[in-house]
Specification:
273 residues, mainly alpha, 13 helices, 79% helix
């Protein structure tokens, strides 16, 4: 049996801790969209990016507050559903919304240039390296489910908060290390990113099978098996989306470039910021 939550106060605290930033993030993003659209009437911010950001934040919030978050304290399957939303699908949707590009377009030129230089610094480049991001993402999951950390986070509120923040950030770093939606200061080849992605997929799949055979501490066998199956097949579904987008970008990069294509790319670059 997993540990039940201590009291309703902890749930109220986490609801406010995660819920308020989620609403604030959506408001700031929409406000930035309105600002950049007012400045640039000829090139509006794509509506699908706004939808993607809002959906990503709401899915992440679903895993952190409300019924699913409460149920995940006592049911491993619910916890794993939250993991898929918070650590895989939500980061992908947020990455596809190009938040950094939007921020650069919203800020004044001088401030945008300072932010661009900040994003080029060594710590940012280190954590967005595909291998480092993969270790933070997949390695963090191995640490969570093969040690006593999973049990401990259900009895320690601060640890519970830290783990969930790590899951989202690690998932986001992993996604942007493979998909170049926002501007990046260091680019790795599609071949390199694909190889890293294959190893990450293997690590995620093996972990789900390990959980099926060796349940985490305090998790019943039937719960572990249903959660492991959800992790395996649900993770594959999200990974297929990531694979499709990665390979679509790869295909587009190898197409013959016509004069019209080059002109269109220059126009996009002119309006990127």
């Amino acid at each position: 049996m997993q540990h039940e939550p201590d009291n309703h106060t902890s749930f109220l605290f986490t609801d406010l801790l995660f819920g308020i930033p989620a609403l604030l993030a959506i408001a700031l993003y929409i406000g930035a969209v309105m600002t950049t659209n007012q400045r640039n009437h000829l090139r509006k911010w794509p509506g699908m990016r706004t939808i993607s950001f809002v959906a990503g934040v709401l899915l992440a919030a679903t895993a952190l507050i409300g019924p699913l978050a409460r149920q995940s304290h006592s049911e491993f399957t619910a916890h794993m559903m939250g993991h898929l939303l918070l650590g895989m699908l939500a980061p992908l949707l947020v990455a596809l919304s190009a938040p950094v590009t939007l921020l650069l377009r919203t800020l004044h030129v001088r401030t945008a240039r300072k932010l661009s230089r900040l994003l080029q610094r060594r710590p940012i480049r280190f954590f967005t390296h595909p291998i480092v991001a993969s270790f933070l993402n997949i390695g963090g999951l191995w640490l969570l489910y093969t040690t006593s950390l999973y049990t401990a986070m259900h009895t320690n509120l601060l640890l519970h908060i830290f783990v969930h923040i790590h899951v989202f950030i690690a998932g986001y770093l992993f996604t942007i290390s493979l998909l170049y939606i926002d501007p990046v200061s260091h680019r790795f080849s599609f071949q390199y990113r694909t190889i890293v992605f294959i190893f990450a997929l293997a690590g995620h799949g093996i972990l789900s099978k390990f959980i099926y055979a060796y349940p985490p501490e305090g998790v019943a066998v039937d719960q572990a098996r249903s959660g492991a199956l959800l992790m395996y097949y649900g993770g594959d579904a999200v990974d297929l989306l990531l694979i499709f987008i990665l390979f679509r970008h790869w295909y587009k990069s190898t197409r013959p470039r016509t004069r019209a294509t080059i002109d269109r790319e220059y126009r996009k670059a002119d309006h990127a910021i």
